[in-house]
């Protein structure tokens, strides 16, 4: 059924045994081939949501489908269509990179060759290196190689570049963009807004277990949130602030002196922080 959305979440609620509601009435639909970034402060409910979608966690109520299947009732055939890159890696430390990739390939009905994966992840030079000897960034690449080994139609990436240096992060983005171009649907959890801006078609902002926004990154918060602000002090030292799409006009048409004049264009971070408010 190619018309089925890749991911469909309707009114998902998860209440833990502690009584804490981690996710509350969350609904979102992700089309096939789309990359969506899940953003939100610590404790917002991102991991809980993703774990329900991965089939690792039960839900209290609501309907969830991944490739048309309820992950709570997933068969082996369904699991083979989904790639998961968790925050913590599960590789065997004493085998080499090539051995690990070849071994995992046997778990899938159709798998990428070890050579293709080594090239795609830039790990050719480490093919005979034991996993325990890899740097954190190299290990993360192995994680991703294992996540995409079975040609997944949906890929879950949970904070994939935490701890990366800026260059490694850029290389990793190239890798993910390549996977994206193959038509893979990606749900990416990240705390880096620049990562979301580079990789995602849309971002879902979650705070306090609730979906606050789901929109293309450059439309998050709506036009109002992106309207520039003009700030100044008058002769008496009083502060003024106005939002306007035409700061030049405002400045020209103000007849009284404007001191400490500033024009502030809200950044993605400003828009995000305003959206998550006191939860950040
Ligand atoms: N097993 C659990 N039992 C009880 N409460 C939990 C459990 N796991 C998570 N929580 C709580 O549910 C809320 C949401 O947690 P979750 O891990 O989904 O947030 P998150 O958005 O992924 O946060 P982070 O960005 O820190 O990873 C938090 O208040 C957390 O303390």
TrEMBL record:
Tell me, in one coarse class, where this protein mainly resides.
membrane
Give the source's domain of life in one word.
Bacteria
Under SUPFAM superfamilies, the record lists: P-loop containing nucleoside triphosphate hydrolases
List the keywords (alphabetical). Answer: Antibiotic resistance, ATP-binding, Nucleotide-binding, Transport
InterPro entries per UniProt: AAA+_ATPase, ABC_transporter-like_ATP-bd, ABC_transporter-like_CS, ABC_transporter_ATP-binding, P-loop_NTPase
Gene3D superfamilies the record matches: P-loop containing nucleotide triphosphate hydrolases
Q: How does it sit in the membrane?
A: Peripheral membrane protein
Give the ABC transporter domain ranges: 7-233
Q: What is this protein called?
A: ABC transporter ATP-binding protein
Task: Identify the species of origin.
Answer: Curtobacterium herbarum
């Amino acid at each position: 059924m190619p018309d089925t959305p890749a991911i469909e979440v309707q009114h998902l609620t998860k209440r833990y045994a502690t009584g804490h509601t981690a996710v509350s009435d969350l609904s979102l639909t992700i089309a096939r081939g789309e990359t969506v970034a899940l953003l939100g402060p610590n404790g917002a409910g991102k991991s809980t949501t993703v774990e329900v979608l991965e089939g690792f966690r039960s839900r209290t109520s609501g309907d969830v489908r991944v490739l048309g299947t309820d992950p709570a009732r997933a068969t082996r055939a369904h699991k083979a269509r989904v790639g998961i890159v968790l925050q913590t890696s599960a590789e065997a430390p004493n085998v080499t990179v090539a051995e690990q990739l070849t071994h995992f390939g046997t778990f899938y009905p159709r798998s990428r060759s070890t050579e293709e994966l080594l090239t795609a992840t830039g790990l050719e030079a480490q093919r005979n290196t034991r996993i325990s000897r890899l740097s954190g960034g190299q290990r993360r690449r192995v994680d991703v190689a294992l996540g995409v080994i079975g040609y997944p139609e949906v890929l879950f990436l949970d904070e994939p570049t935490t701890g990366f240096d800026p260059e490694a992060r850029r290389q990793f983005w190239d890798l993910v963009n390549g996977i994206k171009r193959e038509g893979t649907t990606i749900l990416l959890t990240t705390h880096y807004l620049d990562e979301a801006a580079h990789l995602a078609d849309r971002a879902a902002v979650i705070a306090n277990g609730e979906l606050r926004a789901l929109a293309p990154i450059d439309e998050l918060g709506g036009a109002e949130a992106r309207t520039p602000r003009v700030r100044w002090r008058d002769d008496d030292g009083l502060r003024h602030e106005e939002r306007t799409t035409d700061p030049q006009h405002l400045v020209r048409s103000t007849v009284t002196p404007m001191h400490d004049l500033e024009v502030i264009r809200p950044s993605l971070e400003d828009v995000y922080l305003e959206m998550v408010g006191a939860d950040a």
